[in-house]
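Record type: ASSEMBLY
Status: queued
Input:
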Amino acid sequence: NAGVMQNPRHLVRRRGQEARLRCSPMKGHSHVYWYRQLPEEGLKFMVYLQKENIIDESGMPKERFSAEFPKEGPSILRIQQVVRGDSAAYFCASSRDSSNQPQHFGDGTRLSIL
Amino acid sequence: AQSVSQHNHHVILSEAASLELGCNYSYGGTVNLFWYVQYPGQHLQLLLKYFSGDPLVKGIKGFEAEFIKSKFSFNLRKPSVQWSDTAEYFCAVNPLTSGTYKYIFGTGTRLKVLA
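Status: finished
Output:
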């Protein structure tokens, strides 16, 4: 499967723990986007990254959330000290570039906070 | 604020019925428009997209959508649905002045097709 790969598919954490979500973009894609879907809501943009650069993180909460896309390896969305309200599905998308190229999505990671 | 409205949250149809899912957006400038489908247990897949040109867009699996600029709408249609079309459908809008990367999604419509 040469599509966008996200892991894990499901992640359970207790309040106060850290959650790490991984995303490997499609082959040839260097632009990565993270979205969050809360129950009964649409996907909401969080952050846009290119290799080693955060381009736009305007949709990401200012505290506890961070994202990176290193030169080697997958993009990581990190949530520190998780709270119940972080329970959601987190989707990663990638594109070849940012101009008029559709974004291709992964299966998502469903994060549940106990 | 920019937003996308999908009016029907749940739709139930019998096989061979016609389908129309509504999508309206609030943004006055130039947009790219998309419909994505998520089959049970699978990832979001692109059904069709509109960037410019003919406002009637043909997608995969017999789907089409019509962009009506005056109504800020991009409704999805299929003349005859099949059981395998059971899925969740998301409309997405990409307002170009906010950068071509930021997609704004509707809340989704869950379609159930009865065999």
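Annotation: Chain B has a mean pLDDT of 92.
Annotation: Chain B is about 0% helix and 50% strand.
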